[in-house]
């Protein structure tokens, strides 16, 4: 005997209208359990989070019937705190910002972007790095060179050339021609038109490589033989430590 559609098991996909949903909602966010109200989740109608709980169901449920959101559960508590009381988080700012972007909660996004951490990253540091030609590509090139030299080694080094101005770029090329090394293995950064200095750029390089999970340090590269220019005016050695 066939089972009518209204008596078919629901499985793990919720059916029906969310207008019939209880005002109390249980959530499983990446393995973290939360209980809140439907009105809290829909506080900002234009957000992706509100859309999840508006109209036809857009979420699956776990084995206990809780709505499941496949996002880091640790930071969802800060999202809920904001929805409940307009409290802007002061911890884990970068991670909460990513979640606010995912849930598209525009008022929270704007307030987080005014925080020193996000403002400094988006407006100051990223805007500077956007003016350094091929910055991201050079970071990846450094990592590829370091990994290629890591075979049976505890450490591998990458030489970079940093030039602040067009004039420095020409002088660097002269110095590079005198270096006793494979010139293709030297990664060049710059020139750029922005206030930050060479030391600021070096800090950014270290920060961004470490953010990818690598352990590195750097120092001026001093050549073993004489030049017309001081090699450490332009050249730095980044040391990758593998174990």
UniProtKB/TrEMBL annotation:
GO terms for biological process: protein homooligomerization. Gene3D superfamilies: Potassium Channel Kv1.1, Chain A. InterPro entries: BTB/POZ_dom, KCTD7/14_C, SKP1/BTB/POZ_sf, T1-type_BTB. It comes from the Eukaryota. Residues 23-120 form the BTB domain. PANTHER family: BTB_POZ DOMAIN-CONTAINING PROTEIN KCTD14, POTASSIUM CHANNEL TETRAMERIZATION DOMAIN-CONTAINING. This is KCD14 protein. The lineage of its organism: Eukaryota, Metazoa, Chordata, Craniata, Vertebrata.
């Amino acid at each position: 005997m066939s089972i009518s559609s209204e008596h078919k098991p629901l499985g793990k996909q919720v059916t029906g209208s969310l207008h019939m949903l209880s005002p109390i909602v249980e959530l499983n966010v990446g393995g973290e359990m939360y209980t809140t109200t439907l009105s809290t989740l829909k506080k900002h109608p234009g957000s992706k989070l509100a859309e999840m709980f508006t109209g036809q169901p857009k979420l699956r449920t776990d084995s206990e019937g809780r709505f499941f959101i496949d996002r880091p559960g640790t930071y969802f508590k800060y999202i809920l705190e904001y929805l409940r009381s307009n409290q802007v988080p002061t911890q884990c700012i970068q991670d909460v910002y990513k979640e606010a972007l995912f849930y598209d909660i525009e008022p929270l996004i704007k307030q987080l972007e005014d925080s020193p951490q996000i403002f400094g990253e988006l407006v100051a540091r990223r805007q500077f790095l956007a003016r350094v030609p091929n910055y991201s590509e050079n970071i990846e090139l450094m990592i590829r060179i370091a990994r290629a030299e890591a075979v049976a080694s505890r450490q591998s080094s990458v030489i970079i050339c940093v030039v602040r101005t067009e004039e420095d770029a020409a002088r660097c090329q002269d110095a590079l021609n005198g270096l006793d090394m494979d010139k293709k293995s030297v990664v060049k950064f710059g020139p750029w038109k922005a206030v930050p200095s060479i030391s600021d750029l070096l800090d950014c390089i270290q920060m961004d490589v470490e953010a990818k999970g690598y352990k590195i340090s750097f120092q001026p590269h001093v050549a073993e033989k004489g030049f017309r220019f001081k090699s450490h005016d332009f050249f730095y050695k980044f040391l990758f430590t593998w174990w």
